[in-house]
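Internal ticket #5521
Category: modeling
Description: The requester needs a full-assembly model to guide mutagenesis choices. All entity lines are attached below as received. Residue total reported by intake: 756.
Assigned to: D.W.
Attached entities:
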Amino acid sequence: MTDETKSHRALRLGVAGPVGTGKSSVIATICRQLRDEFALGVVTNDIYTDEDTRFLKSAGVLPEERIRAVETGACPHTAIRDDVTMNLMAVEDMERDFAPLDIVLVESGGDNLTATFSPALVDAQLFVLDVAGGGDVARKGGPGIARADLLVINKIDLGPHVDVDVDRMVADAEAARHGAPVLALSRHRPETVAALCDWVRAIHGSWANGSHTPIDPGPMAPHHHGPKDDHTHAHGHSHPHHHPHD
Amino acid sequence: MFVSSPPEPAPHANHMVARAVLASELGPDGRRSRVSRLRSDGPLVLRPSHPKGAEPLTHRRTDAARVSLAAGTAGPLGGDDYALSIHVGAGSTLVLQDVAAMLVLPGAGGGRSRMSLDIRVDDGATFVWWPEPIIAAHRCDHTHDIRIEIAPDARMILREEAILGRHGEVPGNFASRLRITRGGAALYDQRLRFGPSAAGADGAAVLGDAGAVGSIIAVDPAWERGAPPADPYDRGAALTPLAGPAIAIGAVAADSLALRRLLVRGLDILGGPWIARHNGKDGS
Amino acid sequence: MDGAGGSAALLLLSDGRLPAGGYAHSGGLEPAVTAGRVTDMSDLERFLVGREETAGLIAAAFSAAACERSRRGELFEIPALEAELDARIPSSELRRISRELGRQLRRAMSAVHPHPHYDALGAAPHQPVVMGVAAASLDLSPRDMALAILHETNADAAAAAAKVLRVDPFDVHAILARMATRLDRLAGEAARAAQGPSADLPAPGSPLADIAAEHHRRADVRLFAS
Ligand SMILES: Nc1nc2c(ncn2[C@@H]2O[C@H](COP(=O)(O)OP(=O)(O)OP(=O)(O)O)[C@@H](O)[C@H]2O)c(=O)[nH]1
Ligand SMILES: [Mg+2]
C-alpha cells in the first residue's frame, strides 16, 4: 500500500481544546523550543479558513512545507474522531515526505469540550483550556479534560485580569483527572514553557522506547445521530490509566 | 444516450444531406500553406478567404491557408444531415472561419438535424477554428458532433458558442459533443445538452438561467511541462489547465454579446500568440 | 456480468459514514450557493437533478466501468479509463478533488477490506475508479455500483444543504424521493455504458459547476472543501 509508511513513523501528538484557548500557540511554542532537538511536522484542521496554517507559517516556527492544512467540512470533531482518514493521510504524507520525522503535531479545529482524538490518529494528546474561559471549566470535566495525556491550563498570566484563581483551577483539574498531569502554562513564563517541553521530551522518550500506552480519552458526550448510533454506551467505559511519564 | 457513433439518421427525400471536405498542406517552399482539397456540398459552401475579424495564433505567420464556411442561409433544419471532414496536413496552418452564425431550426416534418465534423490535425500543423455561434431556435432538435484527433506535435485553438434561442425565445433541444484526442488518447470530451428534454440543464450545476454558453480550447505542445494555471476571471468564466498540454476557457453568460466578451477576456489572460488580434491583420 | 455480492456489501459502500473523508465536501452545493445560484428549494431541486444528469452520471458510469474491468481482471484498462475521466473534467480543481477523494477511499478500503487491485491503481486514482475496484472486490455488480455512486452524489449535497441553506430537511428529502426513479434510470444507463469501450462512456458537461469550483478554491471562507 503506497499510502502507508510504517518505516518512518513519528510520534503523533494531538492538540485539542475549545476555540481560542491557545492550541496554535502551544504548537508554535513547542516548534520554536524543540525544532533543533526533534524533526517536526504540523497538520492543522480548518473549519472555515486556513487561519491556523497561516498563523503558524507566518510565525516562522518551521519551514512552510512542514505545516499542512486539512479541510474538515465544518466538522472538526469528525475529522479527529469518527473519520480520521484525511488527517491520517496528511500525517502519513508528512512522515513520508520529510522522513525521518520524530514528532507530527496535529491541531484539532477548535470545537467544544467533548472533542478528542481517536487513537487511530494520534499516539498521545494534549487538551488545552485557558483561564479566560472561566475557572469552573476544569471542574466540568469531559473526556479531554479528564483523560487526555496532558491537560494544559493556558494563559495563566491573565488569571488576575479575569478573576480566576489559577491555583484553584489547577487543583480542580487535578481532582477531575485523578492525579493525571496538569500543566499551568503562559508563554510569558519561561519556567512553564520549559515544563511543557519536558513533558513532550518525556512522552517522546516513552513512545520511542515502547513504554508508552496510547490512551483513548473516550468519545464525546452522549448524543444521538441516528437509531443505530451507539455513542451513548461508551461514555463511561473504563480505560486503564497509564502515565509512564509522571 | 449520446454515443460516439450514433446510427445515421435515414434522411427524407426533401432533407438535405451534405458531405463537404477540406484539406490543407504545406507547399513546396516548405513555408506557405495551401488548400489541397476543397469540396463544397449543397449548403456547405467552403471558400478560400482572407484574414477576417479577430483571429489568434496565426499572426506569427503570413502564410496560413484560410477558408470560410457558409452553412446555407438558414439551417440545418430538422432532418438535415451535414458532415464536414477536415485534414490539416503535416506542418501546414489552416484557419477556418464562418461567414455567419448558424441558426438551427425545426424542419417541416420534424426530425433531428445533425452536423458532424471530423477533424485530423497532423504533426507540426496548426489549426485555428474560429466559428460563429450556433443559435438553437425554438423547437429545434439538433445534434452537433465534433471529433478531433490532434498529433502530439500539433497546435490548435478553437472556439465554440451556443446560444439558447433567438432573442427572448425558448430554445429547442440541442446536444453537442466535442471530443478531442491527442495521439489517440482522450484529452477533452464534453457533451452539452439543453432544451425541454435536458432535465436539470437549467440548474446551477449546468447552465442555470444563462442564454449563452461557450468555450475556447487551446492545445500546445509547448505546455507539455504544465499548462497555464487556473484563473476564474469572472463569476461566469474560468480558464483551467486540462490534464495535458492544453487549456479550456469555459464561459456562461446572459447573451451572445456577454459571452463573446468573456471569451475574449479569457484569451487576453492567456496572452502571447493566443490573443485574438483586433485589427484582424497578420503581424510579423 | 452480474455480481453475486449481497446487498449488505452495497449498503456498506454507499453509506456516507464510510470513513473516507467525504463529509468535507458538499458536492458543489456550497460553491453554487456562494455564487448566488441556489437560494431556494426549487433551485436546489434543479441543481440536484442537473448534477445527477451530468457529474453523477459520469461518476456512475466510470465506477461501473472500473468495476466491470476489475471483475474481468482487466486492470490494464484502468489508465485509459483515468485519462477518459480526466478529459471529462475541465476544472483542474475538480480533477484534483476527485483524485484526493480517490486516495482517501483507497486508504480507507485497504484497511477495511484489503484487495491486491488497490495497489495496481496509480498514486492518486480518481474516486469513481477506486469505488469500482472496491465494488468488484466485494463482488458487486456494475449496476449496483452505479446506483451507490448516484445515491452518494445526492446524499453528500443533501447533507450539506442543511449547513449552507435555510432549509427544512424534510423538503430536502422530498426532493431525493422524487429523484429515486431518475437514479434508477441513470444507474441502468451507466451500467450499459460500462459494457462498452471507455471512449464511449457518457461525457455530459457541467460548465457552471466547473467555474464555481475554481472560485470556491480561492474563497477566503468556506465550510466545505468543494
Ligand atoms: N495572554 C496570553 N495570551 C495567549 C497565550 N497563548 C495564546 N494566547 C492568545 O490567545 C489567542 C488564541 O490563541 P491561538 O493559539 O490562536 O488559539 P487556538 O486554540 O489555536 O484557536 P483556534 O484555532 O481558533 O481554536 C491569541 O490571541 C493568542 O495570542 C498566553 O500564554 N497568554
Ligand atoms: Mg488554532
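Resolution: model delivered.
Comment from assignee: Chains B and A do not touch (no CB pair under 8 Å).
Ticket closed.
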